[in-house]
């Protein structure tokens, strides 16, 4: 079957989709967006987290057919999504992230250590600055979940952060640097206002 | 596989009548796992996401009519006053991502003995509203809904429309045992509701029998003991021997198995502990509100 939906603000069409296929599979294998990671396929790990009509969900548990006509944001579109949020909408009428740009998106920029030269969302920059990335596999899901947490709750307590990220597993580290990153992003967000 | 996408409730019922083997999918948090792992290859998937009615709830005089697909997140945010037991249970479901998708209709459809909503529904008192194109709507008391391990009272052409849950008339509590706070399937769970209007107590046990069950003998014992001691009126602390006997009878209502999550004897023990604790918590809360209202009078 064919599925039409919006990905990172741009209309997309996926063809030859099998009826039992997940949104995660469509994003990775049909649209070439491997940012959302495939690990447990049962909603335990959160590494495939995307926004579906604004709400964080495990894309491995959404049937492809269920996203027809709906709006998905993946980690590849997070920087643009955060920018639009700050600017209070889309001024130029040509916002969002094209499929090409999304497929080539990387956090590297001109300096691979600091990410300088690439436009990052505040939460992405905070993850780099706090050293919250080790192997990086859980990072995309954590970024999407943490970004939504700060959108909903700009001044989270530690307990709020723990609960907000309780659906995302990291097996490299403790979660301390990730907690640091979210606190840092919240603090910077507070300063900016 | 065919993907059926009804745009209305009537269309959904018609599709289910035409294809009784169709598997309904709403939040997908059970169905997609089975498909991803190749445990299930349904001939038809029946998507319920487009049916807006299923995402709505109505607060009535005595009960809440909760649409089958209302996500757990919404229950926690909006129905804590009316359905405190279910709101607490909802908060123990998996993770934010899962709570954003899953709802009580799916919990009932799957009818796993470990489903988190069941003990809260049993304790509060509820009826499941189901419908078919041929016979219309019927209400199934939740006590009669669970018929076996992952089996329920639905006919092949029926879908779950909503759950009618009695609004709380007293304190309710919910307790769940697991290895950590998030992403846990219950080792066992316990729900308890005080109903001061009828001077009764109701319970629900999860994951400690082939189906979710009430501890009826324990309820009868406690109802009689509270009545006899005049507890509802004098608001005294529950006698430790009464709480102990209540806990023992709740343990005795279990019919658990040994599995990877826990042994049968551990589950029996833990249900007793949860029964005693939830009774204490709710009763203290009841005494507190009684004192407050007396103070005001």
Structure description:
The complex is a heterodimer of chains A (about 190) and B (about 300). With about 190 residues, chain A is an alpha+beta fold. Chain A has helices spanning about 25-30, 80-85, 100-105, 120-130, 140-150, 160-165, 175-190; strands spanning about 5, 10-15, 50, 55-60, 70-75. Chain A is globular and about 45 Å long. In chain A, strand 1 (about 5) and strand 2 (about 10-15) form a beta hairpin. Chain A folds into two domains: about 5-75, Beta-grasp domain (Ubiquitin-like (UB roll)); about 105-190, Orthogonal Bundle (DNA polymerase, domain 1). The longest helix of chain A has 17 residues, at about 175-190. In chain A, helix 4 packs across helix 7. Chain B is α+β, with helices and mostly antiparallel strands and about 300 residues long. Chain B has a domain at about 170-295: Enolase-like, domain 1. Helices cover about 40% and strands about 20% of the residues of chain B. Chain B has a five-stranded antiparallel β-sheet. In chain B, a hairpin with a 4-residue loop joins strand 12 and strand 13 (about 200-205). Chain B is globular.
Q: Topology of this structure?
A:
The complex is a heterodimer of chains A (193) and B (297).
Chain A: E1 3-7, E2 10-14, H1 23-30, E3 49-52, E4 55-58, E5 71-73, H2 78-87, H3 99-104, H4 122-130, H5 139-152, H6 158-164, H7 176-192
Helix pairs in contact in A: 4-7
Chain B: E1 2-4, H1 9-18, E2 23-25, H2 31-36, E3 44-47, E4 57-59, E5 63-67, H3 72-78, H4 84-91, H5 96-99, H6 104-110, H7 117-124, E6 126-132, E7 136-141, H8 142-145, E8 146-148, E9 151-152, E10 159-166, E11 172-177, E12 188-195, E13 200-206, H9 216-228, H10 231-234, H11 240-252, H12 264-296
Parallel strand pairs in B: 1-3, 2-3
Antiparallel strand pairs in B: 4-5, 5-10, 6-7, 6-10, 8-9, 11-12, 12-13
């Amino acid at each position: 079957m064919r599925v039409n939906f919006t990905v990172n603000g741009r209309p997309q069409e996926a063809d030859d989709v099998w009826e039992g296929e997940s949104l995660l599979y469509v994003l990775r294998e049909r649209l070439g967006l491997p940012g959302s990671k495939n690990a447990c396929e049962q909603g335990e790990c959160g590494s495939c987290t995307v926004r579906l009509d604004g709400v964080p969900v495990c894309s491995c548990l959404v049937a492809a057919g269920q996203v027809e006509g709906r709006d998905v944001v993946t980690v590849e579109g997070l920087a643009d999504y955060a920018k639009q949020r700050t600017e209070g909408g889309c001024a130029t009428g040509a916002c969002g992230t094209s499929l090409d740009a999304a497929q080539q998106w990387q956090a590297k920029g001109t300096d691979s250590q600091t990410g300088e030269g690439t436009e990052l969302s505040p939460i992405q920059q905070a993850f780099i600055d706090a050293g919250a990335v080790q192997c990086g596999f859980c990072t995309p899901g954590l970024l999407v979940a943490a970004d939504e947490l700060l959108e909903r709750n700009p001044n989270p307590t530690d307990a709020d952060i723990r609960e907000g990220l309780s659906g995302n597993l990291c097996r490299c580290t403790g979660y301390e640097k990730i907690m640091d990153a979210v606190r840092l992003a919240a603090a910077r967000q507070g300063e900016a206002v | 596989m065919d993907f059926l996408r009804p745009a209305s409730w009537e269309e959904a019922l018609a599709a289910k009548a035409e294809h009784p083997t169709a598997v309904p999918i709403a939040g997908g948090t059970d169905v997609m796992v089975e498909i991803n792992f190749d445990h299930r290859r349904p001939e038809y998937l029946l998507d319920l996401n487009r049916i807006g009615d299923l995402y709505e709830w109505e607060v009535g005089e005595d009960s809440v009519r909760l649409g089958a697909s209302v996500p757990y997140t919404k229950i926690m945010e909006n129905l804590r006053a009316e359905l405190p037991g279910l709101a607490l249970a909802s908060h123990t479901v998996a993770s934010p991502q899962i709570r954003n998708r899953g709802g009580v209709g799916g919990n009932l459809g799957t009818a796993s003995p470990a489903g988190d909503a069941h003990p809260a529904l049993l304790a509060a008192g509820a009826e499941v509203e189901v419908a078919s194109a041929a016979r219309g709507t019927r209400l199934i008391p939740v006590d009669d809904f669970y018929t076996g391990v992952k089996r329920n009272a639905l006919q092949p052409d029926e879908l779950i429309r909503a759950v009618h849950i009695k609004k709380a008339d007293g304190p309710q509590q919910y307790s769940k045992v697991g290895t950590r706070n998030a992403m846990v399937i219950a080792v066992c769970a316990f729900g308890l509701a005080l109903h001061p209007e009828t001077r009764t107590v109701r319970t629900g046990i999860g994951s400690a029998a082939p189906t979710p069950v009430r501890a009826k003998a324990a309820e009868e014992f406690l109802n009689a003991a509270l009545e006899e001691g005049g507890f509802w009126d004098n608001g005294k602390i529950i006698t430790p021997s009464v709480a102990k006997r209540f806990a023992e009878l709740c343990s005795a209502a279990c019919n658990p198995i040994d599995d990877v999550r826990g042994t049968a004897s551990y589950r029996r023990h833990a249900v007793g502990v949860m029964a005693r604790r939830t009774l204490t918590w709710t009763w203290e809360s009841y005494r507190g509100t009684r004192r407050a209202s007396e103070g005001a009078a």
